Amino acid sequence: MTLHISAAQVEAILEQSRVEYPDECCGVILGPEGSDSAQVLKPMVNSAHSPTFYEFDSKDLLALYRELDEKSQEIVVVYHSHTETEAYPSRTDISYASEPSAHYVLVSTRKEIAPENEFRSYRIIDGIVTEEEVVILS
After folding, report:
1. Among 119, 125, 91, residue whose Cα is nearest residue 106
2. What is the enclosing helix (H) or strand (E) of 31?
């Protein structure tokens, strides 16, 4: 699989990761059901407020699932940042990956690579992590 994502969405995710540093940032991108089209970026609150873990706020998550039902949308991308490690899913990330059709985007903001950031995408299905190509659209 390949993730097709707009340059504006990539920049928004990178900016959120910089603003929320040293905590991990998180969010989703929604699209029409069955389309695999990343259209609506929704930054989420990391209720864990942690540099090593993220968790969507439960109220925000409930509202998100209601919106998905009402608008016949699905989660196309689940994203978060790693603040001190590479942009690769941790064991915790893998165990929490519950959207088998989603692209899991990770951004690394670790100081060793500043001012650059890693932006990578994976599929995580039944605990198996597969990196995928990212095509950034203008």
Report:
1. 119
2. strand 26-32
Geometric angle at alpha carbon 49, from 43 and 112, rounded to 5°: 85
CATH of span 2-137 = 3.40.140.10
Q: Residue 107 pLDDT > 80, yes or no?
A: yes
Contact assessment for residue 52 and residue 24, using Cβ atoms and an 8 Å cutoff:
yes
Inter-residue contact 107 to 14 (CB < 8 Å): yes
**Per-residue pLDDT tens digits for 61-106:** 999 999 999 999 999 999 999 998 999 999 999 999 999 899 999 9
Measure the CA–CA gap between 122 and 104, rounded to whole angstroms: 5
Identify whether 115 is preceded by a cis peptide bond (ω within 30 of 0): yes
Whole-number pLDDT of residue 115? 58
The answer to whether 55 and 23 are in contact (CB under 8 A) is no
Q: For residue 128, with 0-12 CB atoms within 10 Å meaning exposed, 13-18 middle and 19 or more buried, which class applies?
A: exposed
Domain residue spans of the chain: 2-137
Pairing of strands 26-32, 73-82: antiparallel
- pTM of the prediction? 0.94
